[in-house]
């Protein structure tokens, strides 16, 4: 039952990284072996690519960014996913749905190209479960707080488009749970942990 790929998705500031870290602590307590990484980023090489993409001084074009996200993903696939796929639970902070939500629904890059690139890198690999963090429209900030990278500076409309994109992508996916980011942390952590127990067959 173990050995699953579990992804945390949602627009910037939706709380997915917080929840991924909560799940990590929970798996440590339950002695479940896992690895975790973020995208873009993850391996040393992918973190180098992350810094290039997200630098607030970056003037790279949209298609350049797309290719860099996929380049970073390939490093993660070869170095982190492949060797661990049948050994450990893999927790990922953003994955393929982020690319479709941001690069297609946000930046209007052709869907087919994105699918082809993902297939080129990942073959038929798909996450087993997705926690999608939904931010009610009134809660979407014009600017994301904290340290700002290039992608934290888009306008509210951009994040609304990206979020609607996530909803479209995930509509047909049964292996997901929608987390309402406006609910309390305590409430959300509880439902996420219950779901993790079911997905990974964890008993008390
Ligand atoms: P990050 O600071 O990690 O955002 P967060 O903490 O909210 O996850 O920045 C990652 C940014 O990269 C985020 O704005 C979304 C963007 N992104 C894409 O546009 N395409 C992708 O394929 C991925 C993985 C991320």
The proportion of residues forming helix, as a percent range, comes to 40-55%
User: Any idea what the CATH superfamily is called?
Assistant: P-loop containing nucleotide triphosphate hydrolases
Label the overall shape: globular
CATH fold call: Rossmann fold
Radius of gyration: 16 Å
The ligands found in this model are: thymidine-5'-diphosphate
- Structural domain tally: 1
Topology as H/E string?
Answer: EHEHHEHHEHEH
Using the coordinates above, name the CATH class.
Alpha Beta
Label this structure with key terms:
204 residues; Rossmann fold; five-stranded parallel sheet; 5 strands; 50% helix; globular
Description:
The protein has a single domain (5-200), classed as P-loop containing nucleotide triphosphate hydrolases (Rossmann fold, 3-Layer(aba) Sandwich), CATH 3.40.50.300. It has 204 residues and is α/β, with parallel strands linked by helices. The chain is globular. The longest helix has 23 residues, at 62-84. The model has no long low-confidence stretch (mean pLDDT 94). 50% of the residues lie in helices and 13% in strands. The chain contains 7 helices and 5 strands. Strands 2-3-1-4-5 form a 5-stranded parallel sheet, sandwiched between helices. It has helices at residues 16-29, 44-54, 62-84, 96-106, 111-122, 156-170, 185-200, and strands at 5-10, 34-38, 89-93, 129-134, 176-180. Helix 6 (156-170) links the parallel strand 4 and strand 5. The site of thymidine-5'-diphosphate (TYD) has 14 residues, from helix 4. Thymidine-5'-diphosphate is lined by residues 12, 17, 38-40, 54, 69, 94, 98-99, 102-103, 149, 151.
């Amino acid at each position: 039952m173990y050995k699953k790929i579990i992804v945390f998705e949602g627009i910037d500031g939706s709380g997915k990284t917080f929840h991924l870290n909560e799940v990590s602590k929970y798996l440590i307590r339950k002695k479940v072996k896992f690895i975790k990484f973020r995208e873009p980023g993850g391996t040393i090489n992918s973190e180098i690519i992350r810094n290039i993409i997200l630098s607030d001084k970056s003037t790279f074009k949209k298609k350049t960014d797309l290719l860099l996200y996929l380049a970073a993903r390939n490093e993660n696939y070869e170095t982190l996913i492949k060797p661990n796929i049948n050994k450990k639970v893999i927790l990922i902070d953003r994955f393929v749905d982020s690319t479709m939500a941001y690069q297609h629904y946000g930046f209007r890059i052709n869907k087919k190209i994105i699918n082809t690139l993902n297939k080129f890198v990942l073959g038929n690999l798909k996450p087993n479960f997705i926690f999608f963090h939904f931010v009610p429209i009134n809660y979407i900030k014009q600017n994301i707080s904290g340290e700002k990278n290039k992608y934290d500076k888009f306008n509210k409309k951009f994040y609304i488009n990206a979020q609607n994109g996530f909803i479209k992508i995930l509509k047909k996916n049964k292996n997901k749970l929608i987390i309402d980011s406006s609910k309390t942390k305590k409430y959300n952590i509880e439902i996420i942990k219950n779901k993790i127990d079911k997905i990974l067959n964890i008993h008390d």
